[in-house]
Amino acid sequence: MFFHKSQSPEVRIDKSDMLLMVKCFVKSKMTSKMQCVIESDESILIGDIVHMKNRDYNKGYGSIMMDKLLSYATEYGYTTIHGNLSIIDTDHKERLHHFYEKFGFTITEYPKNRDCYYGEIQKILTEVNI
C-alpha cells in the first residue's frame, strides 16, 4: 500500500473491558473502524469493518487495521481471531474472501445460512505469525 505522505493513515486501538476498536485516521479524521469483541483471554471476535464513506473501499485502510489487530493480538497472547460472514456482504463475497485469505484466515461457508450468516472466518495465531 502506498499512501501520499500527507494522507498517511494513523491506526489506533481503543480497548475497554470487552470491546476492542481498531480505528484508522487520515488527517485526524476517522476513515474506518474495525469493531471487535474480546471473548476471552485467548479469543477476539471481529464484529464489523466499517468505512465512513462507501468510496473508502480498496484504499488499504482495512489492511492496515488488520495488520494492527494481528500485531496487537500476538503481542497480548491471544491465540484465535474469528468472525462471521454476513449474508449482507454476499454482493462482494470474492473481495471479502480475498481480504481474509491474504491474512491467513480459514474461510468456512455453511451448507445453508445460519441466522444471518453464510459462513465464518478463523485464524489461529502462533509464534510463526509474529
Key attributes of the depicted protein:
globular; alpha+beta; 44% strand; 2 helices; Aminopeptidase; 130 residues
Can you offer a commentary on this structure?
With 130 residues, the protein is of the alpha+beta class. It has one domain (5-129): Aminopeptidase. Helices cover 19% and strands 44% of the residues. It has helices spanning 61-75, 93-102, and strands spanning 10-15, 19-26, 29-38, 43-51, 80-86, 106-114, 117-124. Strands 1-2-3-4-5-7-6 form a seven-stranded mixed beta sheet, with helices on one face. A hairpin with a 2-residue loop joins strand 6 and strand 7 (117-124). The longest helix has 15 residues, at 61-75. The radius of gyration is 15 Å and the shape is globular. The mean pLDDT is 88.
